[in-house]
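Hi L.,

As promised, DUF5675 domain-containing protein:
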Amino acid sequence: MELKLIRSVFNADSTFGKLYINGAFYAYTCEDKVRDLSGGCGNKIKNETAIDFGKYEVALTFSNHFQKYLPLLLNVKCFEGIRIHGGNTAADSEGCILVGAESDMKSKIWNCASKVANLVALLKSIEKKEKIFIEIVKD
């Protein structure tokens, strides 16, 4: 299964895009601001920086913070505990990828719970059969 996040809107404190599953649009995304991490972690601002572009393996694990199973991105340079979950603005992100059914593509996303629940159910149905990856690119 291939998840692809295409980032297309880069604001002063947030980043918006679209998440695709096997090539089909799935949800709108909201993240913290993209900062250049190519030279290391020096430009990272804790809880205010999006993860770097690239391809990451995804595992479905239990989140103690959210008290439920959520997708976890593995081996993310400069970050720990990066998940895909619900939230409305970059302030809810702390580096994670937020997903929602609707977005104004400039300040927020909303109607997140069903998108997160459906994504978790989908990943759960295939996690033991194949590896799951997410690729993050710029539009």
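DSSP finds one helix and ten strands in the chain.

Thanks again for sending the construct details.

K.
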